[in-house]
Inverse folding.
């Protein structure tokens, strides 16, 4: 809901979202200090574990083929989705003339759909189909929606088509992201849960740096150094779609490998 809140609050001035985020960070720090307990217990005889940096652990994790595939899938998903979130506001401003507040409402719609799916439907789907097939389906939905949405405009589908397209954004991400996190957590024993989830977050952090940078490079390419064009919008969305196509193919390979190992 971050982009949604930021967009809606922008109608009170461009400074308002920054003040709001600063207040949230302060409240978060206070709650962490006074409420959140330390998860690890230390004593004088405890052995201090020598650890490498988080990103070193990230690249080291790729040596484990199964966990490496999960990590790479998560990385590709976040890269593609961050490209979309970066270009989306530029796209709606260019095609529909929407401002930051109106985009905030669109992101609210995406967030509500995600809450409904992850809160009430996801667990049932996992029980019926398994996590990896949810990754396959979610990746496929993102491939199609990232490819199709840039065709939508006021004269080509209008707001209705836009809402349908971004619904698939939300559904695809809401299936893939928690499913990958669940698979990763099942890969590790209890003492390694924090490390595994930390590695995934490192992959996501790296992806969130690469995605927006790549999106900006594609949007303001040599063909449109000062202005966004239809060409650069297509190029940026289709790059995200191509990345998710790679993730989709990897997810199918992973699912088939898991099935063969189960039957063996």
């Amino acid at each position: 809901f971050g982009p949604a809140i930021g967009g809606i609050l922008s109608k009170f001035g461009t400074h308002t979202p920054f003040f709001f985020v600063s207040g949230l960070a302060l409240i978060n720090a206070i709650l962490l200090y006074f409420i959140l307990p330390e998860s690890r217990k230390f004593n004088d005889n405890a052995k201090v574990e020598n650890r490498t940096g988080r990103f070193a652990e990230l690249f080291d994790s790729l040596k484990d083929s199964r966990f490496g595939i999960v990590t790479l899938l998560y990385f590709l998903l976040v890269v593609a989705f961050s490209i979309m979130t970066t270009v989306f506001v530029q796209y709606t401003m260019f095609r529909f003339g929407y401002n930051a507040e109106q985009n905030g409402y669109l992101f609210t719609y995406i967030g509500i759909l995600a809450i409904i799916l992850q809160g009430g439907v996801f667990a049932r789907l996992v029980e019926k189909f398994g996590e990896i097939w949810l990754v396959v389906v979610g990746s496929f939905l993102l491939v199609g929606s990232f490819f199709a949405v840039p065709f939508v405009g006021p004269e080509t589908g209008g707001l209705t088509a836009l809402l349908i397209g971004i619904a698939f954004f939300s559904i695809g991400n809401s299936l893939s992201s928690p499913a990958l996190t669940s698979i990763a957590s099942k890969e590790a024993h209890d003492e390694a849960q924090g490390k595994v989830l930390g590695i995934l977050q490192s992959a996501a952090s790296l992806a969130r740096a690469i995605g927006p940078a790549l999106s900006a490079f594609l949007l303001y390419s040599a063909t449109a150094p000062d202005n966004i064009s239809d060409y650069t919008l297509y190029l940026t969305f289709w790059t995200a779609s191509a990345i998710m196509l790679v993730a989709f193919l990897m997810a199918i390979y992973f699912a088939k490998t898991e099935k063969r190992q189960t039957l063996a």
In short: The longest helix spans residues 230-263. The chain has two domains: 1-37, 52-263. Residues 1-37 form one domain.
